[in-house]
């Protein structure tokens, strides 16, 4: 099943993972998304954050 999610949802998912003691698996289950999606979103989030801090 393919589900499009907003940019805001992705950011909130990554922030939930980063700011809580929950595992990636727990966050994925709570949000009903694939673990791999959160992994990819986190990778993009960190890359973007690095880019902003370098400027």
UniProtKB/TrEMBL annotation:
An example molecular function term from Gene Ontology annotations: DNA binding
The organism's place on the tree of life at top rank: Bacteria
GO terms, biological process: DNA transposition
Record InterPro entries: Homeodomain-like_sf, Transposase_8
The family this protein is said to belong to: Belongs to the transposase 8 family.
Protein name, UniProt field: IS3 element protein InsE DLP12 prophage
Source species of the chain: Legionella cincinnatiensis
Gene that produces this protein: insE
């Amino acid at each position: 099943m393919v589900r499009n999610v907003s940019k805001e949802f992705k950011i909130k998912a990554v922030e939930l993972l980063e700011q809580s003691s929950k595992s990636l698996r727990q966050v994925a289950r709570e949000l009903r998304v694939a673990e791999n999606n959160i992994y990819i979103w986190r990778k993009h989030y960190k890359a973007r954050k690095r880019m902003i801090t370098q400027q």
